[in-house]
TrEMBL record:
<keyword id="KW-0067">ATP-binding</keyword>
<dbReference type="InterPro" id="IPR027417">
    <property type="entry name" value="P-loop_NTPase"/>
</dbReference>
<dbReference type="GO" id="GO:0016887">
    <property type="term" value="F:ATP hydrolysis activity"/>
</dbReference>
<keyword id="KW-0762">Sugar transport</keyword>
<feature type="compositionally biased region" description="Basic residues">
    <location>
        <begin position="139"/>
        <end position="148"/>
    </location>
</feature>
<dbReference type="GO" id="GO:0005524">
    <property type="term" value="F:ATP binding"/>
</dbReference>
<feature type="compositionally biased region" description="Basic and acidic residues">
    <location>
        <begin position="125"/>
        <end position="138"/>
    </location>
</feature>
<dbReference type="InterPro" id="IPR003439">
    <property type="entry name" value="ABC_transporter-like_ATP-bd"/>
</dbReference>
<keyword id="KW-0677">Repeat</keyword>
<dbReference type="Pfam" id="PF00005">
    <property type="entry name" value="ABC_tran"/>
</dbReference>
<keyword id="KW-0813">Transport</keyword>
<feature type="domain" description="ABC transporter">
    <location>
        <begin position="24"/>
        <end position="136"/>
    </location>
</feature>
<protein>
    <submittedName>
        <fullName>ABC transporter family protein</fullName>
    </submittedName>
</protein>
<feature type="region of interest" description="Disordered">
    <location>
        <begin position="121"/>
        <end position="148"/>
    </location>
</feature>
<keyword id="KW-0547">Nucleotide-binding</keyword>
<dbReference type="InterPro" id="IPR050107">
    <property type="entry name" value="ABC_carbohydrate_import_ATPase"/>
</dbReference>
Amino acid sequence: MAEPDCIVELGGVEKRFGAVRALGGVDLTVEAGICVGLVGHNGAGKSTLMNVLAGTLSPDAGRIVVHGESTARDMAGHWTVSTAHEAGLRCVFQELSLCPNLTVAENARIMHPALRGFRLAPARRQPDHRQARRDLSRTRHFGRRHRR
């Protein structure tokens, strides 16, 4: 069973494509507050692992525990995009199509506003025009060409 501060725990996760073993019993624990980087050679299984976590691929064996809730029932065919979303898991891949005006947390929540772990401000903070004028007034000592 996962520790209380464990966000995601994988145990013995396997994925095969015909005779090719893409994931061979992967064990991984991601604890709260920890940033994890997944690094490896081409063909090492990084994308396959992320696709399993995201639910776009179902694992052939193993268990996935999210926020202490096990999904260990017969994994084949049961871990889907919907179950991953219900568990609060999302993947943002290297080829991004994000909204540049949003924060990382806001981009992650676009398709799932109930995603746990992030709080959005109720409204974007409006600029303080008086403060901006004060800051800009300091530039009066600069020549015209440096005031841009």
